[in-house]
């Protein structure tokens, strides 16, 4: 592989890992926020246990979203300084707004939510998880706006060999953004719903003590996944019309983009029909159907496979352009970047993030398996932490 | 307008060193102050509620650099390539230690991640010292070298001092065996942030030459400035909620 292939591989590996975790973060955040709100409204212990159990899954998953996101943010300057040189005056704006106006707040409020159990006033604590959710979706908006600019560089003109921002509104009304943002948000809810369905099905199948807990969660998961799936598929097809305006023939030139698109549609369409015509109409009885539970568990990874395929289609289908018809990937690469530099950083990032991703998924699986009675998040404790130390760890 | 954004960038960078500095410092001191598992739990629990609110200042630095000084972003990050990579890997390893150490039972699991916290914090301190030294030298020399290593050790000492002061403030007569006031913590924050402040001041003309055009900066100002009170308020809330009078050890910690 030459240096360009190495740098592209590094971006693809870290970007795909990032989205695997971010999609679940986006999908679970509103579900945890809704559950926490129900707890605050009713004071029922069942809702508290649900908030802490699903909240812990959400938080363990969140860790890898941060780790991979850090590499994503700094990678633009490391490998693709040609992008900031040529288009930083335009492309940098949504990224700067995302870090300051969204992620800065998200991280701060997430810390308050995680460590604020039994410390913050009830409704302020609930407000924290809603602010985390809101800012996470604001992040999605700005990141998708930045990505859509790469798909279709609206709102900018070239002056003196660099792009200049002429119309900021055009970044937000970009046809490449209008249909893809709801598509991605729908996919996140779809994935979040599937994780809730799969984990609940596991406990119902194992006949653990928390029957009421997971019966409700399974139904909630099916409803959320149905809504998310419908939105994803609807706005997925809606993108084709717009796509003809700015990237006609996107999926005909690069085989990988076509394969990604095909597999995504196969998974997305099949599951949408299954949800709409089987799982949603039977949602009341579904938790009692023992034969269905292994199937629900087995389906859990499918939305994740589909979302990665979707990103491959969107990104690979634009080759060789980094900014469509303006800047090629080769021209965007940092001048002076050597194969040795990228090889070392690629091994470092892929090795460390890959290992941590595997550990994180094993920890999520373990947290699901151990169930709601051994959740560390928000665990109440006596005055002396030493007394509880063995019990409070997950 | 470019002066305003230079101020924002400098403030975020100084804020990162003043705040995240004590987390890195406590990570460095973990094998020294935390000789028993229980002491290590107490030290990690003392910094845990602050970490997410502290480390995000550097994410904001990178964002502002990209949005307001795009030409500088590429030059600086690419010029420091090996240091940025080691900084990111160290940061990830440190954070993984924090997030994962309590996720499984057993002393070996927790001890292993405590070493990850130490190794990551050491990597962060050394990378920062070398990066600041390279930036002070105008990115002309090699990014990694003997003078840089000296700067890295000095940076580690400053972070460790700040971390020690923070532990003595949040856990009076705790693992450090000392108690420090908020004023002392402010002073140690200045020590931790001084090198970065000096480099930021020295780089000001270089940065201003690379500022985005007024149109871009205007858009950033209109969209970001309304969020400033919420950002400041959230940070202040963290300190009010988790200060030394919040009965730091009453609750089991998630990290």
Provide a short characterization of the protein structure.
Chain A is mostly helical and 394 residues long.
Structure write-up:
The complex is a heterodimer of chains A (394) and B (255). Chain A has one domain (3-376). Chain A contains 15 helices and 4 strands. Chain A has helices spanning 3-42, 45-79, 81-115, 122-151, 168-172, 175-178, 180-206, 211-246, 250-253, 255-279, 292-299, 302-316, 329-332, 339-370, 385-392, and strands at residues 156-159, 162-165, 321-323, 327-328. In chain A, α7 crosses α11 (292-299). By secondary structure, chain A is mainly alpha-helical. Chain A starts with a helix and ends with a helix. Chain A is 78% helix and 3% strand. In chain A, a hairpin with a 2-residue loop joins β1 (156-159) and β2 (162-165). Chain B is an all-alpha fold. Chain B has one domain (2-246). Chain B is built from 9 helices and no strands. Chain B has helices spanning 2-33, 37-68, 70-79, 81-100, 107-136, 146-170, 182-209, 214-224, 228-241. In chain B, α1 runs antiparallel to α2 (37-68) and α1 crosses α5. The longest helix of chain B is centred in the N-terminal third of the chain and has 32 residues, at 2-33. Chains A and B meet through α2, α3, α14 and α15 of A and α2, α3, α4, α8 and α9 of B.
SS summary, helix count of chain B: 9
Domain count of chain B: 1
Q: Determine the most extensive contact between two protein chains.
A: A-B, 80 and 72 residues
Q: Biggest β-sheet of chain B, characterized? A: none
Helices of chain A, by number, come to 15
Helix content of chain A: over 70%
Q: H/E order of the elements of chain A?
A: HHHHEEHHHHHHHHEEHHH
- Indicate the structural class of chain B: mainly alpha
How would you describe the shape of chain A?
Answer: globular
Termini of chain A, distance in Å? 43 Å
Instruction: Count up the domains of chain A.
Output: 1
Q: What are the segments of chain A in which pLDDT stays under 50 over at least 5 consecutive residues?
A: 383-394
Please provide the count of β strands of chain A.
4
| Strand proportion of chain B | under 5%
Oligomeric description of these chains:
heterodimer
Residues in helix, % of chain B:
over 70%
Query: Which class best fits the helix and strand makeup of chain A?
Result: mainly alpha
Roughly how many Å apart are the termini of chain B? Answer: 41 Å
Mean pLDDT of chain A: 94
